[in-house]
Amino acid sequence: MSEERRKGSILRRPGGRHWAVLRALFLGATVATLLAMPAAPAVALDDDVRLTIGRISPKAREQFTRLRALATYLEQALADDGVASVDVLMEDDVDGMRQSLRAGKVDLLSETAFTALTLVDEGEVEILLREWRSGVAEYHTVFFARRDSGIERLDDLDGRTIAFEDPGSTSAYLVPRVTLEQAGFELIPLNAVPPPAHRRQVGYVFAEGEVNIVARVHRGWVDAGVVSNLDWEEEDEVPSFMREDLVVIHGTPPLIRSLMLVRADLDPTLKERISEVLQQMHLSAEGREVLDDYYRIARFDRLVDDALVGLETARQFHRFLKR
Asked: What is the pLDDT of residue 3?
């Protein structure tokens, strides 16, 4: 192409009239195309996202219905966000749940503080929200003895005996165990030979149930017992005719009761959307009914202020247990 032909073409002067017309036509078409495009979905996710709610329990049949109610609610609430289904998966123990999390088979689960913190420390999950289980966000352990025992405080347990619930109980074993060990006591199983006799030793037994703990103390079979402050007020766990013969000798600081956890590598946008849905559940009659079916949860909320204090208390106990 000659120099003269190039000068006479539409590309001759980018700042000229022909270029201005072309540029206006191009911009107009681009704007029209953008305006015609559909709005982006609330959560930018691939279609057919499948989530799974997990639960650690050896009683799968009893627990399944509770989880299924929440799964169905989330499935419906997140349908417009690309979630096609929400399933339920049960594991008998922490090891089984750990394997399922690592395999990407579980996305959500709720747990008591110590188990939750174990999984968080291992990097498998993150804390999403606090659960108000049975309408309560926090709880603590109470130590008690018979009024006529002469036991008035922890130091009086020197050479005495105590009843715990079972090795997996947070409020009726793990927390009181840490409390006693931090106070300088050595815990000795009651079946040990010889039985506890030295300074700063406490003998212990597992009673397998709160009411059994209370009965053992009331009958004088052991010197002291432990239950949560919530169970202490329950007639079924601590009958009033027994409670009147008992006295609380110590209470631990309150710790967070239960947490909703989320798989660490789940899409961040989806995490936030799930959090929003859970936090709004207690605002509707349908949501409240599902929450009640799901372990009598009053509501979910973020961890701020007092919740962070309760979480830090749980972390301190948890760190001591991991020594």
From this structure: 39
Residues in CB range of 166: below 8 A, 6 or more apart: 172, 173, 206, 208
Q: Are 183 and 272 within one domain? A: no
Residue 79 DSSP code? G
Number of domains within the chain? 3
For residues 219 and 293, state if they share a domain: no
For residue 194, what are the CA distances in angstroms to 160, 186, 188, 189, 219?
14, 14, 10, 10, 23
Check which CATH number belongs to the domain holding 225 and give it.
3.40.190.10
Whether this model's pTM surpasses 0.70? yes
> Distance between CA atoms of 215 and 238, rounded to whole angstroms?
9
Q: Residue 200's pLDDT is what?
A: 84
Distance of CA 282 to the CA centre of its chain: 17
Full domain range(s) for residue 13? 3-36
Within a domain: residue 303?
Answer: yes
In degrees and rounded to multiples of 5, residue 296 shows phi and psi of 55, 45
Domain presence at residue 283: yes
**Amino acid 322: pLDDT:** 81
Q: Which of 153, 151, 145 is nearest to 214 (CA)?
A: 145
Q: Is residue 233 located within the same domain as residue 145?
A: yes
Shared domain check, 93 and 109: yes
Q: Are residues 283 and 235 in the same domain?
A: no
| Concatenated DSSP letters of 136-191 | BSEE-EEEEEEGGG---SGGGGTT-EEEE--TT-IIIIIHHHHHHHHTTPEEEETT
Is residue 227 within 8 A of residue 172, CB to CB? The reply is yes
280 domain residue, yes or no = yes
In a domain, 159, yes or no: yes
Q: What is the pLDDT of residue 46?
A: 57
Chunk the chain into consecutive blocks of 10 residues (it has 323) and report each block's average pLDDT, rounded to whole numbers.
Answer: 37 39 40 38 62 89 88 96 94 93 94 92 94 92 97 95 92 95 92 62 93 96 96 92 96 94 94 97 96 93 89 90 81
